[in-house]
Write a structure and sequence with these properties.
Length: 138
């Protein structure tokens, strides 16, 4: 049962490392910056998790994701590619999902954690696909 709990994390870190490899081998400077920022945010989120109430964890995650959103948005505005905007949109949905427990809106914990995992997967997948598509059209 412990393995099933860790499986989404293992898959996410595998995707993140794949995104870094793809951005290092095929991407430009902005691709590399965004890939490493996604990995750093994932590590910071993992290290900040604890046996705290959902609201306290949401505040910590909100700070991390707001910093990530700002960084990716600044790089997306400098980029001539479209995939960073998809990443920004998915990060923004993660930021909004952190506000729900903070504002005391009742939500099942499973739905909260699923929403946070889904936006992370979309963001990293957009990077991988975007680097391949944008590179192949140049």
């Amino acid at each position: 049962m412990q393995f099933l709990y860790l499986l989404p994390t293992i898959i996410f870190y595998t995707l993140s490392l794949t995104a870094i490899y793809v951005s290092l081998s095929r991407g430009d400077e902005i691709d590399k910056k965004i890939a490493f920022s996604l990995l750093f945010a994932a590590v910071a989120t993992t290290l900040s998790q604890g046996e705290h109430p959902l609201r306290l964890n949401s505040i910590k995650f909100l700070v991390i994701d707001c910093i990530l959103f700002s960084y990716v948005l600044l790089n997306a505005l400098k980029s001539k590619k479209y995939w960073p905007l998809v990443s920004c949109a998915s990060i923004l949905s993660g930021v909004v999902s952190h506000l729900i427990p903070i504002l005391y809106i009742p939500i099942p914990e499973l739905a909260y954690f699923a929403a946070n995992n889904i936006w992370g997967y979309i963001c990293v997948t957009a990077l991988i696909i975007g680097v391949f598509i944008e590179k192949s059209t140049d």
